[in-house]
Amino acid sequence: MKSLSLKNLAKTYFDAYKGEHVTAIRDVSLEVPAGEFVSIVGPSGCGKSTILNMVAGFIPHSGGEILVGGTPVKGPGPDRGVVFQSFALFPWKTVLDNVGFGPKMRGVPKAERDAIAREYLALAGLSHAADRYPNELSGGMQQRVGVVRALANEPDVLLMDEPFASVDAQTRMTLQDELSRIWEERRPTVVFITHDVPEAVFLANRVVVLSKGKVLAEVEVPISRPRVWDRLVADDEFKDLSNQVLALVRSA
Amino acid sequence: MERTSRISAALIFIAPLAVLVALWAVVVPVFGVRPQIFPSVPAVGRAGLDSILDGSLLRHVAASVSRVAIGTVLAVLVAVPLGILMGVSRGVSAFLTPLMRFFSVLAGIAWIPIATLWFGYGFGAIVFVIFNAVFFVVAYNTLLGVSTIPMTLRHAAASLGAGRQAMLTDVLLPGALPNIVTGIRTGLGFAWRGLIAAEMIATDVGLGYMLFVARDFYQTEVIVLGMIVIGTLWLLIDRLILVPLERATIERWGLVSA
After folding, report:
1. Domain final residue, candidates A107, A126, A154
2. CATH for B64-251?
3. ipTM of the complex
């Protein structure tokens, strides 16, 4: 696990439709120490997904610096695992081979990467689905595979782009419980993008509120762990923090 | 259960063909159709038996099928890499697309005259025609397949450490495979038609040749036999090779409903 550091990050691009330059990210600085879970929330169009795409290396940034463990980011790489809203599982690979894909890219032999994949699948209660294809699984199951696939590659930083936005509310809470448990066990460095404020607060050590391409506020979440919805749903501290962040987002 | 439903599906497929044959068996004797115009069922049966016994049918079928097989394999080997290259490079795609459009119209028998000048009558010219029929369809479908792979899948692969080679073998190729298979299926359909036409002109063995020569002798039973063999062979190739291939990729991966 390594730290992630954004220094005066900026992104402008040319909007061919409007025929003008658009500033998506104005000036964002953010420190995520190794092993910390940071959520970034904000209204649609605040630039939160743009930040994640730049950190992942999918799009270039136009100003500032992105450092993972002190090393500047140049394009996508296995040091930054990504979990996508659309799951992005390879439909032509079994669950086992999806999860073993990262190790395969590192040159890990077949038997060994299967063992790694099975270990991580067990972590998310997915052992029974190893030989299935993604389209045979429910959305919730697919995203469990998505999370586990990213983790199995042991990235320095885990980037999650609204990963639970396209599953039903019930499944979403289960997935949040599970992610919380897995994070507590493994302590990866996580940047979690969401527009769901309770989700952001539930999972994170710190919530960053983004507005119009800038950091509006940072809110520490000192709620004790392990965190599970059964407990937090009626927890006053959780409610207060959620309301506080919600007020910030609405003012954004 | 599986087995009985497959048998009944086969029966449903065969039933209309059987009706057609029955009609034919009745109409020819009832109206006294002359054999120079259209043969009777027993005449075609006899022609079939004779051509099997003297080995000529096998020789024609073997020639036709091997030409199609070789032309198709060569076309796929060239078309798939080119289609993928076009799929990943905007520049290559922009440059080649107008050429592909132009030549895909010409694909098939329009090339026979010049193909016979280049390769002489026979094997080379016909394989070239087959190649042409398959090549453009497969290249275009490969391009289509690559461009329909969601960008997030390429992003996912890159962020899991995939380099150029792995991107090709683990993402682009399997991602485009359903379209490639569809392209091969369509292309083979063109090739099969083009083959018969080319064989009428440019060779002295093969199913097309068999048909064409029979015409000179008013052997309508051989012509109809040839037509039946051509149609049946295509159905067999389609049902036994292409459809299962399509099923194994597209349906298993759920790419039809996606």
Report:
1. A154
2. 1.10.3720.10
3. 0.92
